[in-house]
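Researcher: I'm preparing a figure for a lab meeting and need a structural model of a single chain. I don't have an experimental structure, so a prediction will have to do for now. The sequence is pasted below. Please return the structure as tokens so I can convert it later.
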Amino acid sequence: MSSKYNKRTNDRKFDETRPIEAKAGVIKKADGSAMFRIGKTTAYAAVYGPRELHPKHMQDPKKGLLRCNYNMMPFSAEERVRPGPSRRSKEISMVTQKALLPVVNLEDYPNAVVDVFIELTETDSGSRCAGICAASIALADAGITMKDMVVSISTGIIDHQIVVDLDGEEEHITDLDVADIPIAMVPSTEEITLLQMDGKASKEELLKSIEEAKPVLKKIAETQRKALKEKYKG
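Model: Understood. Here is the structure written out token by token.
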């Protein structure tokens, strides 16, 4: 099906992401930390733990608990964000935890908790994806036993045209149908650990957008690993 969207508003190719930067070990007092920037969206993640879980009745002698806390700073978006937990931040905290759980070996940490705090200092779409990428690097930096990284990107469908890594301008196109599809994946197995959709798309378009995102996600995973190697190289 032909699309009216034949040139991106930002002149990127349809499968091209915004510029990406990643760094490990950016918060000194945390057990593990990372910064992940994609375009004008910047996420910081700090990991604390494993440490003993309190209250004790929440402890599980067979495995530990992974807790995620996602927060957008009041000045991070053009419209001021109200400080404190919102319904959106609670929902993103939950989907982030679910996206990361398949790779974290919590059986190694009985009765313990691993806390992940994600702060968005700057947002221009794809904030939950940037948070997941930062959190994955921070968990590895903290020495948490993991099967692999988790990598995430927001792919989109604009008037039947699949585009990778929607930016804010594309998200807010009003004269064409726009679907925003955040995806998280385990690169080695291609297991999808997060798939959401805001907007309308056919099943075929959705499946095609996942396939087109996979090579991009694997490339981002290389950036994550490079950030960890850079830290430990010295």
